[in-house]
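Priority: medium. Attachment 1 of 2:
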């Protein structure tokens, strides 16, 4: 997965917007104003942070060396994923989907619809 594929995948989701709230090199994707993925644009290899169910976060870390506790994030709820080719794209899309769905589920009911 590369940055353009990641960007297109995130923006294809309902009510997603991108922004640069942490500076011009950190791209953030939000659903209804809540962050579900962020990535640095100045890394040699694509890395991104995704929100996770705490049990699933540990499971991903144990299964893939390229998944680590979230860099500069709450390590219980966020993972940093390095797209170094060791994780199938299907699995990375699943991580992104899980993050998006967790954030949507946390929104007030009137915002979820």
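Attachment 2 of 2:
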């Amino acid at each position: 997965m590369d940055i353009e594929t990641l960007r297109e995948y995130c923006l294809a989701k309902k009510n997603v917007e991108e922004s640069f709230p942490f500076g011009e090199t950190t791209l953030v994707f939000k659903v209804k104003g809540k962050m579900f993925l962020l990535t640095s644009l100045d890394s040699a290899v694509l890395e991104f942070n995704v929100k996770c169910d705490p049990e699933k976060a540990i499971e991903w870390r144990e299964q893939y060396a390229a998944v680590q506790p979230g860099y500069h994030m709450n390590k219980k709820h966020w993972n940093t994923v390095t797209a170094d080719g060791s994780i199938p794209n299907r699995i990375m899309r699943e991580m992104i989907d899980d993050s998006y769905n967790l954030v949507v589920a946390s929104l007030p009911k009137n915002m979820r619809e």
